[in-house]
Amino acid sequence: MTRELIAILRGIDPEEADAISDVLVEAGITRIEVPLNSPKPLVSIRRMAERHAGRTEIGAGTVLQPAQVEEVRAAGGMLIVSPNFNPAVVTATRDAEMKSYPGVLTPSECFAALAAGATGLKVFPAFQMGVEGLKAIRAVLPVETAIYMVGGVGPSNFAEWRAAGATGFGIGTALYRPGDDARDVGVRAREMVSAWEETCR
Questions:
Q1: For the chain, what are the domain ranges?
Q2: Residues with catalytic annotation?
Q3: CA distance 71 to 147
């Protein structure tokens, strides 16, 4: 079962990659993003992609330049996530047959990203749009648009965001901080999955 949860492992070190990805996958989170401003991010992506081949979608976040897309693909990445909308990055991602999730906040950015070929939209920061803002923008976007909320979301408000039209969530520091013990990350991951599943009933 693929849950609409993306673990954002900002700052992860390659030496942590195996243990952290193991507990995430065991908990049921199979989409993992390593921001490119982490230590040796391509090494971490490669390790996790090889270790969990066929069971996960591993990718990169904070992708700002088209040239970075090919580097991520060569490391085994399947997802490209950005904090902003850069049409050249979206085009490079789709040309590489990878999934594209650009960061958006305004209606203009949302529609421009979809027109450029984005797989889904990353609303960032989610707390700035707010639940009421999501309801309003969901009303005008194509029904099939996948919208992922990132920034200020967690198990306590999954249900509220889902009711407003969120497809899923990107979870960063509420799930992982550099140096966290893998067992603690596993506990939080299971809480996230449980909260997610409650919204699906």
A1: 5-199
A2: 33, 122
A3: 26
Output the six-digit token pair for 165.
């039209």
Question: Which amino acid is present at 101?
Answer: Y
User: Quick check: 100 and 93 in contact, CB under 8 A?
Assistant: yes
Q: Hey, which CATH number is domain 5-199, 3.60.20.40, 3.20.20.70, 3.30.450.20, 3.40.50.12780?
A: 3.20.20.70
Gap between the terminal Cα atoms of the chain: 15
pTM over 0.90: yes
Q: What φ, ψ does residue 140 adopt, rounded to 5°?
A: -110, -15
Between helices 41-51 and 14-27, what is the axis angle to 10°? 40
**For residue 35, which of 183, 156, 143, 177 has the smallest C-alpha distance?**
177
Q: Is the peptide bond before 125 cis (omega within 30 degrees of 0)?
A: yes
38-91 pLDDT tens trace: 999 999 999 999 999 999 999 999 999 999 999 999 999 999 999 999 999 999
Token pair, residue 27, equals: 């908990």
Question: For residues 178 and 11, is the Cβ–Cβ distance under 8 A?
Answer: yes
Phi-psi region of 165 (alpha: psi -120 to 50; beta: other; left: phi over 0): left
